[in-house]
Amino acid sequence: MEASPGLAWTTGLVAFVAAVPLWRYTTNAITVAHEGGHAVFGRMFGSTVKHVKIFRQGAGEMLPGKENPFSRFISLVAGYLGPSIFGFGGALLLANDFDPRSVLFLTMVFLVAVLIMTRNAFGFLVIIGLGALLWVVAMRSVAEVQLAFAYVWVWFLLMGGARQVPELFWVMWSGDRSNDAALLENQTHIGDVVWLFLFWLLSLGALVYGGALMVR
């Protein structure tokens, strides 16, 4: 089913409300994509994962096991870029007239993969809750609702991916050297400010280009 420009803009507005004014309530969904990005991309390139944990108010943790320098690098980069990567992939599917349920099913597959690695109760609740919502929409709603929800979800991932990056600035400002940018600086000897800039540039690029694909 092809979406009209009006639907694309309207769902973008709904996603903006979720990603900005309601961020304190929706941030954990982006945390799942962030920590899941660390875990899934790290495993794809040879890392093992001891656990993933999702905490309240948007905090999260992915503890790696055995890893090599390349898998560690990919895993670190894939955290802050994870939501944008997944959102941009969804935008490509929707822009090329794939069934909107394909976006929802692929998200559920990702959630199952992250759930297997999750080791705390709050993380289980968040992931199962997201998965249940996606399953109900994919399996129990009409095609128009599936299309609208898929658009909102993809917009939210793209906006949330950009929305999370400024928070990294405040983490860096506080002197916390355990953040992703600082760990990338330790590995690559490229300054953490450069990584902050790249995260924001690429996430904004994914938002603008992915959004343009959906409203075109």
How would you summarize the topology of this molecule?
Layout: H1 5-19, H2 23-44, E1 49-54, E2 60-64, H3 69-95, H4 100-117, H5 121-140, H6 143-173, H7 180-188, H8 192-215
Antiparallel strand pairs: 1-2
Helix pairs in contact: 1-6, 2-3, 2-4, 2-6, 3-6, 3-7, 3-8, 4-5, 4-6, 6-8, 7-8
- DSSP strand tally: 2
Mean pLDDT: 93
Distance between the termini: 15 Å
> What low-confidence regions span 5 or more consecutive residues with pLDDT below 50?
none
The Cα radius of gyration reads 17 Å
- Total number of helices: 8
Task: Output the structural class.
Answer: mainly alpha
Task: Indicate the overall shape.
Answer: globular
Main sheet: strands, sense, barrel:
2 strands, antiparallel
Helical residues, percent: over 70%
Strand content: 5-15%
Descriptive report:
- The protein is mainly alpha-helical and 216 residues long.
- It has one domain.
- 77% of the residues lie in helices and 5% in strands.
- It is built from 8 helices and 2 strands.
- The protein has a two-stranded antiparallel ribbon.
- Helix 2 crosses helix 6, helix 3 crosses helix 7 and helix 4 packs across helix 6.
- The protein is globular and about 50 Å long.
- The two termini are 15 Å apart.
- The model has no long low-confidence stretch (mean pLDDT 93).
